[in-house]
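Pipeline run #58 for the internal structure catalog. This entry was flagged by the ingest filter as a single-chain record with no existing model, so it goes straight to prediction. Upstream metadata was stripped on purpose; only the residue string is passed forward. Reviewer on rotation: M.T. Logging verbosity set to normal.
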Amino acid sequence: MVRLASTSLLASTSTSLVSASFSTSMWSSRWWSEAMANKKRKRLGYKDPTKQEGPLPRIKDDSPRIKQAALYKPNNDWSATRALAGQNDYIDILGSGELHPKQLLYHVPEYLKGAYHKEKHFQVMLRRQRALEHTPFPKAFPSKWQGWQLNMLAEHRWINRHVDQNWWANYRGTKEGPVRNPFKRRLF
């Protein structure tokens, strides 16, 4: 009796599974067609300039074939720009000493001329501030000037926090003995 009940239960569940797997409801039959109809267009108007596979064809939008090579025109090596290029490269060695190479940096701001290449960012900001504070720049560009001042303040705070200021205090020439490490934290 128990065996008969279990087989009938098994048969009823298997038929319900089979009937569920073979049924087609409305939403599942239209899923693909609706997905294709409502597809969002991505990269609309983008034309891929490279062909991804197969042999390379001549594409309709490709550049036209070269029919004849252009005539050769040699460059004028004695034009003003070419003839005078590099004329000040060795002015400090070969010159009379009247000109310094930093005076030839025509396209560099005045406050950067003669700056050492290992100068810290804060030192360059101080140079810029000293050079521009008595000009019309702060009034002409107040937000830029204020941003620079805030940057300098933040940089100054960082330097004060991270570098031991006693390293330079009361410097009286060369000291003897072991040098104190300026980056070692002091406990008290």
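catalog note: DSSP finds eight helices and no strands in the chain.
catalog note: The longest helix spans residues 2-22.
status: ready for reviewer M.T.
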